[in-house]
Write a structure and sequence with these properties.
With about 800 residues, this protein is α+β, with helices and mostly antiparallel strands. It contains 34 helices and twelve strands. It is globular.
Length: about 800
């Protein structure tokens, strides 16, 4: 039905081809029916969309307020489980028939099975997916998914939009009059005549959108009449099949139709009036309805923690959105007790899927809706497109209540990792350890998976776009041709042209073995493959990249000659934060997709004499973060190109501190360099990386007499939130007494410093590192500042010291992966 719906909307000019393609792209990421996506994009009014849903499905359209009054007697016939399985909510009775509300995706055969199960005829009415969920939640007293409640609030702002496009109507000629009537959207109630009574003949003049059929009551093999009312008969049904409708001979009268051109049955099978009892044996025989893309993703058998390396492999070959999301969450579960995914759309983050340890409620995420117009870590991640590792507590009651649904607790620290697709955050992964702490070193290897997931979604979008949607095909009418009226010319040949048929030769039995199979088609030259990769635009060269990835050795050899390749965007055309490698050029995307195999090539190119080559190589390393690139990145801290310097700092910030301790020795030694510019670069990197092990070198170099001393003093102030000028004795005395204290304690002491600049520096670093907020501002009156500083000190004693004070013992962590014991 989605293909039919899209084709009709494009055909009638209600939605353009480009916008329909964008709708398909959003459907790949967010799921849901096509009608939900179209409403979220505000491309069509709900009333008009409902009309086209009726045309696409062959069912009568439901009114906007169809679910306001639900008959309890009808509701008692179908349980919530069966209604969800068949996506059919009972509304009321029309004679013996049950009126049910349905939505896309829809299978008529499943409704027939439901009619058999209830032993009653059904009259289905089609409605948009979001409205079906609202009616279902109201009928069975459950919470509707946050996505649909948000969409409902948006649409209620303008409940009566003006119609667009050209309308379709069905003109009914009454038998007794010559007056033309236009049927409303909802067909009037059908009176149920006695059994075997024939319907009153009514002539219908159908337009091009109404199929001419006669609705004589069909019979199944048991002699029982069809139990579906208002369902367009299937062309594939046989004369003994369920719901088959024979074509009428010429001159026969037609049955009335609904506003959507759908035949209405005028014969209803009376039943006993007793609701069918659904036993376990009957439920076991019930067919399994197809899962809608908006329903929760099935996690059975796919919810165990997953190693990061294996997760990267699965993401590279994922062929559906559910696999991408599940793989990402399984990798996060290997480092955390709870992992959830929120999709970002319409200015809110909506809960989609969650995995967790036994005892943690993973279904509550379906009720999570976090607005992104309120200051919170979620808003910061969505706007900055950078991961967040810290507290989720905001002090805003509505948001904190939603956070509690993400695992049932307010974690002391958590990971928020964005999935960025085309400079827009489309989803956020939430991971935490409940009441335990989660640090950067625990999730460092997870961060590149965000880019891998974005690449996987991009490939799915390209594949979805290539499939496209088919335009409605109108079958050519079959024309009967009378053979005696066909004029033919006699074929005349000359005598010389006629030949007697030659005797057929008997083929000889082969005695030799059959010839060998044809050799496989030779592979293209790798140069041709990379030519196609370079010419491809972003998200369009997937097939060529896949071809190159199958031949890594040849690819690397040719990449060494071409790097960085043809660029789509020049680095100087971008203001602010650098883009991802794939956005600069498709060849750079291939380099990143090669993974660890391209590490040596990138390390070599980071030392190239050409600054642009060094820049693009550092961009790729920033995404891959191979361990053997740490020392080369430290060298780039002193690059003549400031863009390369900043990228090197950003890349190094993603490595564990244990890996940086030895590599940063080069930066610490540079503090003693004669050139003040080198000193400035070294101190800037030390501050941005928070390298407190460099304080000894900084104090030793503060006595120098050039501009380098001022750079060193600023670095000491930024690291310690103290200021003793250029006196090495005062700095040394303070450091000897504070060496064993945590840097967070230094910053808390800086909150009561006499200088405004140092107080501001201290509180900004504290908030960035801890994510906490206790009402402190550097420009408050002195007493208020001191009270707020005391709250910071109390927090450090009660919980901060436990979170940031010591190293965590891997053996006591539940999700720990202990090293393999090698036995000689």
């Amino acid at each position: 039905m989605p293909a039919r719906l899209s084709s009709l909307l494009v055909r009638d000019g209600l939605v353009g081809v480009k916008r329909m393609e964008k709708a398909f792209q959003r459907q790949v990421i967010y799921g849901g029916s096509l009608d939900t996506i179209l409403l979220e994009m505000n491309l069509i009014a709900e009333e008009r969309l409902t009309q086209y849903l009726a045309l696409a499905s062959g069912l009568p359209p439901a009114a906007r307020d169809e679910g306001n009054n639900i008959a309890q007697s009808a509701l008692a016939m179908i349980t919530a489980e069966i209604a969800a399985q068949f996506r059919a909510v009972p509304l009321s009775f029309e004679g013996e028939a049950v009126r049910v509300l349905v939505c896309s995706p829809l299978e008529i055969s499943e409704l027939e099975d439901l009619a058999d199960l209830l032993d009653r005829p059904l009259q289905p009415l089609i409605t948009p997916e979001y409205r079906w969920h609202l009616v279902y939640s109201k009928a069975y007293r459950v919470d509707a998914p946050a996505r649909f409640t948000t969409l409902a609030r948006q649409l209620d702002v303008d409940a009566t939009p003006l119609p667009v496009g050209r309308p379709k109507s069905v003109i009914v000629e009454a038998a007794a009059t010559d007056t033309n009537l236009t049927l409303p959207m909802i067909a009037p109630p059908v009176e149920a005549p006695p059994v075997n009574d024939k319907p009153a003949p009514v002539a219908v003049a159908a337009d091009d959108m109404t199929e001419k059929v006669v609705y004589e009551p069909p019979h199944d093999v048991r002699g029982r009449t069809s139990t579906l009312i208002g369902v367009q008969p299937s062309r594939a049904s046989t004369d003994t099949g369920f719901g088959q409708t024979p074509r009428a001979p010429a001159g026969e009268l037609r049955a009335p139709t609904s506003g959507g051109g759908v035949p209405i049955s005028t014969t209803v099978t009376p039943s006993s009036g007793v609701p069918a009892i659904v036993t376990d044996s009957v439920r076991a025989k019930m067919p399994k309805a197809k899962r809608a893309s908006s329903e929760p993703i099935a996690t059975a058998g796919r919810d165990s923690p997953l190693a990061v390396v294996r997760a990267r492999e699965l993401l590279a070959t994922a062929d559906d959105r559910d696999t991408v999301f599940l793989t990402l969450l399984r990798a996060a579960r290997a480092r955390a007790r709870y992992a959830g995914l929120l999709t970002v759309q319409g200015g809110v983050a909506i809960g989609r899927l969650a995995l967790g340890e036994v005892g943690i409620d993973v279904t509550a995420i379906q009720k999570v809706l976090i607005p992104l117009d309120v200051v919170s870590p979620f808003r910061a991640v969505a706007h900055n497109q950078q991961p967040h590792i810290g507290a989720l507590h905001t002090g805003e009651q509505s948001i904190d209540a939603m956070v509690l649904r993400l695992g049932g607790t307010m974690p002391p620290s958590a990971l928020l990792m964005p999935i960025v697709l085309r400079d827009r955050v489309v989803a956020i992964v939430v991971a935490h350890r409940g009441h335990s702490d989660l640090k950067l070193v625990d999730v460092t290897e997870l961060l590149p998976l965000g880019s891998a997931a974005a690449d996987a979604l991009g490939r799915l979008i390209v594949r979805h776009k290539s499939a496209g949607f088919r335009a409605p095909v109108v079958a050519a009418p079959h024309v009967e041709i009378e053979e005696d009226r066909i004029e033919t010319n006699k074929v005349v040949k000359k005598d010389a042209q006629w030949r007697a048929p030659s005797q057929a030769e008997v083929p000889a039995v082969p005695t030799e073995p059959p010839p060998a199979a044809e050799p496989a088609k030779p592979q293209r030259r790798i140069q041709e493959v990379l030519d196609d990769v370079e010419r491809s635009k972003e998200d369009e060269g997937e097939q060529f990249i896949a071809e190159a990835l199958e031949r890594p050795e040849e690819t690397l050899g040719e990449l060494a000659k071409r790097f960085p390749g043809k660029l789509h965007i020049d680095r100087f055309a971008v203001a602010g934060r650098p883009l991802r490698a794939a956005q600069y050029g498709t060849l750079l995307e291939l380099v990143v997709r090669l993974g660890a195999a391209s590490a040596e090539l990138l390390i070599d190119r980071m030392t190239s004499p050409q600054r642009d080559t060094r820049f693009y190589a550092t961009v790729c390393v920033n995404e891959l973060r191979p361990r053997n690139a740490v020392f080369t990145l430290v060298e780039r801290l002193f690059d003549q190109d400031y863009g390369v310097r900043q990228l090197a700092v950003e890349a190094l910030a993603g490595y564990p501190k244990e890996d940086l301790s030895q590599a940063l020795t080069r930066a610490r030694r540079a503090v003693h360099a004669d050139d003040p510019e080198i000193v400035a670069a070294a101190t800037l990197a030390i501050v941005q990386l928070g390298d407190v092990d460099a304080i000894d070198d900084l104090i030793d170099g503060i006595v120098r007499a050039d501009r380098g001393a001022e750079h060193i003093r600023k670095a000491l102030v930024a690291l310690t939130a103290q200021d003793f000028g250029t006196s090495d004795k005062k700095w040394r005395k303070w450091y000897e007494g504070s060496r064993r204290r945590n840097r967070i304690e230094w910053l808390i002491d800086g909150l009561v410093h006499k200088e405004d600049a140092i107080r501001e520096l201290a509180i900004n670093d504290l908030r960035r590192i801890t994510g906490e907020y206790f009402g402190y501002h550097h420009d408050l009156p002195r007493k208020e500042r001191e009270h707020a500083a005391d709250r910071w000190k109390s927090w450090w004693r009660e919980s901060g010291m436990r979170r940031f004070g010591g190293k965590e013992d891997e053996r006591t962590r539940i999700t720990a992966m202990l090293p393999i014991v090698r036995r000689d």
